[in-house]
Amino acid sequence: MEIKTDILLGDCKKVLKTLPDESVDLVFTSPPYADQRKKTYGGIHPDQYVEWFLPIAAELKRVLKPSGTFVLNIKEKVVNGERSTYVMELILEMRRQQGWLWTEEFIWHKKNCYPGKWPNRFRDSWERLIQFNKERHFSMYQEAVMVPMGDWSKTRLKNLSETDKTRDESKVGSGFGKNISNWLRRDMAYPANVLHLATECNNKNHSAAFPEGLPEWFIKLFTKEGDTVLDPFMGSGTTNAVAQRMKRHSIGIEIMPEYCEMVEQELRPVELYLLEKKDSYAPTEPQRRIDLR
What we know:
With 293 residues, the protein is an alpha/beta fold. Helices cover 25% and strands 25% of the residues. The chain has two domains: 2-146 and 190-272, Vaccinia Virus protein VP39 (Rossmann fold), CATH 3.40.50.150; 154-189, no CATH class.
C-alpha cells in the first residue's frame, strides 16, 4: 500500500482552490483562535473572524466528499470579562450561508491543565471540537472507537427492572430511547462525546499544541485505511504524522515556511506498507513524535 503525504506551503485560502472537488474524507484542523498566536499568524480580531473564516469553510466544503466530515477545534476567548460570541456566530453563518450541517459537538477535556485564578471565572480545561457534514448520511466507523464497559456494568446491569428490559422512550419526546438489557454480557460500549486527553507540549517549536490522541480518535471514527485527511492549518504536522502512521493519505497546508520545512524533514512524502492484517491501533503504543499542531 502506498500512502502519500502532501505538504503545501501557502495561505490555505489560495492553496485550497488547487485541490480537486470532493477529494477529501476528513478535514481535521485547529485554526488560529481570535486575537491569539499574533507572533506566529498575526491574529484575527473576533469581530472579523467570521468574515475571515467563511471563504475557507466554503473551499473546505467543496473539497470534502459528500460522505466526509469536517472537525473544527476552536474555543472562544474572553474579552472584557465575558466570552466572545464569534464561534457561535461562525456556526450560524456556516449553516445559513453555506448549508453546512452542524451534526455534533465534542469536548476535549484537558486532564492536565495548569491551575490559575481569575476574579470572575475558573480555569479553562476544555475545548470544542465541532463536527460539520455536507449530508445527513456520512461515513462513521463507531466500532473503531469503542471502549471497555467498565466496572459500573457489574452493578448497574446486575438487577434490571422491567423498564430496563424493553425500549424505554425518552420522557421529553425526543424520539430517542434505550434498552439497558441490550448491553448484558458485552465487553465494549460506544464512547461519550467527551474526550479526556492531556495536553502534550514537550517542544516549543509551535505556539499551539494538541496531543496526537486527538486527531487519532477522529481519524479512527471517520476514516478507513487509504482515505484522505486534510489539515489546512497544519502547524508542525501532528495530524499528518498520525494519518501517515494510521495508513491514511494526508494533505497539510501551512503558511509558515519553517513549519513546512520541519514537517517535510520528519515525514516521508510517500510511505510504503506491506499488505497485512488490519490494525486495530488500540493495543499499540507507537513511538511519539513532537506533539504539536
